[in-house]
Amino acid sequence: MGSMTAVPREREPLPPLGEWTVSDLVDQPDNGLRYELLDGQMLVTPAPAPMHQLVVGELFVLLRAASPRRYRALMAPVDWQPDPHTSLQPDLLVVAVDDIGDKNVSAPLALAVEVLSPSTRRTDRLLKRSRYEDGGVGAYWIVDPTGPSIEALVLVDGVYEREASATGDETVTIGHPFPVTLRPADLIRR
Q1: Would you tell me how many other CB atoms lie within 10 Å of the CB of residue 6?
Q2: Would the pTM count as exceeding 0.90?
Q3: Rounded distance, CA 43 to CA 150, Å?
Q4: CA-CA distance, 43 to 169, in Å (whole number)?
Q5: Alpha carbons 88 and 71: distance in angstroms, whole number
Q6: What string of H, E and C letters represents the secondary structure of 129-156?
């Protein structure tokens, strides 16, 4: 058996740190990973686990049922691209019908929802929260399936304030972007 020598492929050089743009996303492989940009920094995360997707599905059904006609609830992967250096894919988003583009959404979202995973917990709680806040996203929900819990934030004068939170069997009604009543425990039902 002969030995094989790996021959390096010719590749375009990677952009310098912090200089990725949305046009660079087109060249990323279709390999099951999620590629996002946060102020020019590439974020790469693994495919979500089944429990994560079950929670996303339950939340989607709730949001879709409660949504007024002028809004639509969408599930990832849908790119929110407010500028050439940012392309985020919230697990769920609510957007005004008139703001839905052919390939992405660039207008501020009415709601971004992130369901925490071990690989995204810090990014969702800190980096994405800050970017959604800076981008004028009207409400941000952080859902933790391990609690289970939900924290609902609403944008007030450019800063997120806690609107509501609940854990386990507690029932909570969240008012933004429209009223939704839920129990975190119901999101993880099997």
Answers
A1: 5
A2: no
A3: 24
A4: 34
A5: 19
A6: HHHHHHCCCCEEEEEECCCCEEEEEEEE
Model confidence pLDDT, tens digit, residues 6-42: 444 454 555 555 688 888 888 787 887 888 888 888 8
Helix (H) or strand (E) holding 55: helix 50-66
Token code pair at residue 23: 């046009």
Measured CA to CA, the distance from residue 90 to residue 78 in angstroms comes to 8
Domains and CATH numbers, the chain: 49-187 (3.90.1570.10)
* Angstrom distance (rounded) from CA 168 to CA 188: 10
Q: What is the pLDDT of residues 60-117, one digit of tens each?
A: 999 999 999 999 999 998 999 999 999 999 999 999 999 998 888 999 999 999 999 9
Task: Count how many residues are written for the chain.
Answer: 190
- At residue 182, φ and ψ (nearest 5 deg) are -155, 165
